[in-house]
Design brief:
The complex is a heterodimer. Chain A is about 35% helix and about 15% strand. By secondary structure, chain A is α+β, with helices and mostly antiparallel strands. Chain A folds into 2 domains: about 55 residues; about 45 residues, Rubrerythrin, domain 2, CATH 2.20.28. The longest helix of chain A is centred in the N-terminal third of the chain and has 26 residues. The relative contact order of chain A is 0.11. Chain B is an alpha/beta fold. Chain B folds into 2 domains: about 160 residues, no CATH class; about 160 residues, Rossmann fold. A 7-stranded mixed sheet of chain B has the order 1-2-3-7-4-6-5, sandwiched between helices. In chain B, helix 4 packs across helix 5 and helix 8 packs parallel to helix 9. Classes of the chains: A alpha+beta, B alpha/beta. Chains A and B meet through helix 2 and strand 3 of A and helix 2, helix 5, helix 6 and helix 11 of B.
C-alpha cells in the first residue's frame, strides 16, 4: 500500500520562529508602553500598548493554532447494554455487552428470582447520553 | 516618531506618511488578490482536503489493523494473514453491461453470488478456526475496511490530481462533497468494531421486528440464508421472514418472497416489508413511516424480484420504514431504534386488520442485516 501523503501535519519551524519573535516584540512593546506612561508620555504609551496587546493576541492565537490536535477517528467503542430476560417470570437484568452476545441467545445462567434456567438476551443497544446528542434543529 | 497623537491630528486621509503607507498596502493587497485570488482559494481548499485525507488514511490503516487482529484472534491462522487481507482490500467487481439492459438483473445477481462466494471462501482460508457466524462477521469487517480503503484512494486521487494540475475545479468538486464523504467514512469506521464483535446494528431494525414476531415459532430455512416462520397474527397466517442470524447476513429476501408467493399460487393478500431507511435532517431517529412499494436497499436484485412477482400475482406490497442516520445504520443499534420496534409491530397488526380478512395469508419480511440478531 503505497502512500504519497505526509505522515503527519508538521508545524513549519519558520512559522514557529516568526510567531516567537512576534511574541517577544509584543512583550517589548507593552513594556515600552508602560515605560512611556510612567515617563509622562501618554501619546507614545497608548501607541505602544495598542500595538503590543494586539500583536500579543494575534501571536498567542497563532501559537495555539499550531498545537497538534488529537484526531478523533470515530472508532471508539461505544458502551453497549445487554438486557437479560427470564422467559418464565419476566425478571430483567442489565449488564455490559460481552463478546458472543446476540439477541434471543439462550443463556446457561439461572434466573436470580425464580432459579430457572430460562434466561435469554432480550435486547442489545447503545444509549447516547443527553450531552452527547446533537442539538435538535429549531424546525424539527 | 509616528504616534497615535499625530494620527489623531492628521487623520488617515490626508497627506500624512501613514496614509501613504496604508494606500500602498491596500493597493498591494488589491493587486495580489486580483492576480492570485483563485490560487489562494485553491491552496486553502487543498489544505482542507489534505486534512480530511490525513484522517481518512488513519481510518483506513486502523480498519486494516483491526481486520488483521480479528482474523488472528478468531481464525487462529497458521500463516500471517496480512498479505491476504491486503489482497482482499483491493478486490473489485465489474458491473454488467448496461448498453443492452435486457437480463441485466440476472447477470448482476450472478456476479453478486460469485463475489459473495469468493469473499466467504477467502475468509475461510484466512481464518480456518472460525465458525460460520464468525466467518460472516469477519467478511463484514473486511468489507468495511475495504470501503475505507476505496474512499481514501478516491479522495487521494482527486487531491493529487488537483495538486498536479493546479485546477481549482478538480479540487473544488471533491472539497464540496467532502463533509458527506467524511460522514460515510466515519460511519464505516465506527461499524468496524461492531462487525468484529457481532453487535446488532441499526440496519438490522427490520430483521429485529421479524425476529420478535417469529420468536418461539418453528422456523424453516429457505432461499440463501433466509429463515421463515408461520405465525398467526390477528386471525391471519403470516409468513414472517428474515436473514438468518446472528451472523452478519442480509440473505436473499426477494427470492424468498418470490418462492412463498409462488408456493401459495399467488394467494397472498398482502406483503409488508420493514426496513431501516435514511432519515432526512430534522427527522428524529426511530421515526416510523408507512408507504407502498418494495423497501429493499442494496443492488436492487431482490427489489426487482419482489416487484415482478407482486405484479404477476397482483399482490399489494406495503412498506414500513424506520428512520435513521447513515451512521446509525452501520453502527451498534441505538436505543431509540430499539424502542421504536414495538410501535412497528403495532402498525403491522393495524395494517393487517385494515387491509386483509380473517383467514388470509400475508407475508411480513424484515429486511436488513441480521448481525447480532437471532430468531
Amino acid at each position: 500500500m503505497e502512500t504519497t501523503v505526509p505522515v503527519a501535519r508538521r508545524v513549519s519551524p519558520f512559522l514557529l520562529a516568526i510567531i516567537m519573535i512576534t511574541l517577544v516584540l509584543s512583550l517589548v512593546s507593552i513594556y515600552q508602553g508602560i515605560d512611556a506612561y510612567t515617563q509622562d508620555k501618554p501619546e507614545n504609551g497608548s501607541l505602544f500598548l495598542t500595538m503590543g496587546v494586539t500583536t500579543l493576541a494575534i501571536s498567542t492565537y497563532l501559537l495555539f493554532q499550531t498545537k497538534k490536535r488529537v484526531l478523533k477517528l470515530g472508532m471508539e467503542m461505544p458502551p453497549l447494554t445487554t438486557t437479560l430476560e427470564c422467559q418464565k417470570c419476566g425478571f430483567k437484568n442489565v449488564r455490559d455487552f460481552q463478546r458472543g452476545d446476540y439477541i434471543f441467545k439462550q443463556l446457561e445462567e439461572q434466573c436470580p428470582k425464580c432459579n430457572e434456567k430460562a434466561m435469554s438476551i432480550g435486547s442489545i443497544f447503545r444509549e447516547i447520553k443527553e450531552k452527547e446528542k446533537t442539538k435538535e434543529p429549531r424546525y424539527s | 516618531m509616528l504616534t497615535l497623537h499625530t494620527i489623531a491630528l492628521d487623520g488617515l486621509g490626508g497627506d500624512s506618511l501613514l496614509s501613504w503607507i496604508l494606500q500602498i498596502v491596500f493597493l498591494g493587497i488589491f493587486v495580489v488578490f486580483m492576480f492570485y485570488g483563485q490560487r489562494i482559494q485553491m491552496y486553502i481548499m487543498i489544505r482542507e482536503v489534505e486534512g480530511s485525507l490525513f484522517k481518512l488514511r488513519m481510518m483506513r490503516d486502523e480498519g486494516r489493523k483491526m481486520a488483521i487482529a480479528a482474523i488472528n484472534e478468531i481464525g487462529k491462522p497458521q500463516v500471517d494473514p496480512t498479505a491476504q487481507v491486503d489482497r482482499f482490500l483491493e478486490y473489485f467487481a465489474i458491473t454488467p453491461v448496461d448498453l443492452d439492459p435486457a437480463g441485466i438483473i440476472w447477470r448482476l445477481e450472478h456476479l453478486l453470488d460469485v463475489a459473495d462466494k469468493r469473499f466467504k471462501d477467502d475468509v475461510r482460508l484466512m481464518a480456518p478456526q472460525a465458525n460460520e457466524t464468525q466467518i460472516y462477521n469477519l467478511e463484514m469487517t473486511l468489507g468495511a475496511a475495504s470501503v475505507l480503503n476505496v474512499i481514501y484512494k478516491i479522495i487521494r486521487h482527486f487531491y493529487l490530481l488537483g495538486k498536479k494540475t493546479l485546477s481549482l475545479y478538480i479540487i473544488m468538486q471533491v472539497q464540496m462533497v467532502l463533509p458527506l464523504i467524511m460522514k460515510e467514512a466515519e460511519a464505516h469506521a465506527s461499524g468496524l468494531k461492531a462487525f468484529q464483535l457481532g453487535q446488532p446494528i441499526g440496519d438490522g431494525a427490520g430483521a429485529m421486528v421479524a425476529a420478535k414476531l417469529m420468536h418461539n415459532y418453528e422456523k424453516t430455512k429457505v432461499e440463501k440464508d433466509i429463515v421463515v416462520a408461520k405465525v398467526p397474527i390477528e386471525g391471519r397466517t403470516a409468513y414472517v421472514l428474515k436473514a438468518e442470524g446472528p451472523g452478519a447476513n442480509v440473505g436473499k429476501p426477494g427470492e424468498a418472497i418470490k418462492q412463498i408467493i409462488e408456493q401459495n399460487e399467488g394467494k397472498i393478500s398482502l406483503a409488508i416489508l420493514i426496513d431501516a431507511a435514511g432519515k432526512l435532517e430534522g427527522e428524529k431517529i426511530g421515526e416510523v413511516a408507512e408507504g407502498v412499494g418494495v423497501v429493499i436497499g442494496g443492488p436492487e436484485v431482490d427489489k426487482y424480484k419482489v416487484e415482478e412477482t407482486a405484479l404477476k400475482y397482483k399482490v399489494p406490497v406495503n412498506a414500513i420504514a424506520i428512520k435513521e442516520d447513515v451512521g446509525d445504520a452501520i453502527s451498534p443499534m441505538r436505543k431509540e431504534i430499539f424502542d421504536a420496534l414495538d410501535g412497528v409491530i403495532e402498525r403491522i397488526k393495524r395494517v393487517i386488520r385494515e387491509r386483509t380478512k380473517e383467514g388470509d395469508f400475508v407475508i411480513i419480511a424484515g429486511i436488513g442485516n441480521s448481525i447480532g440478531i437471532g430468531q
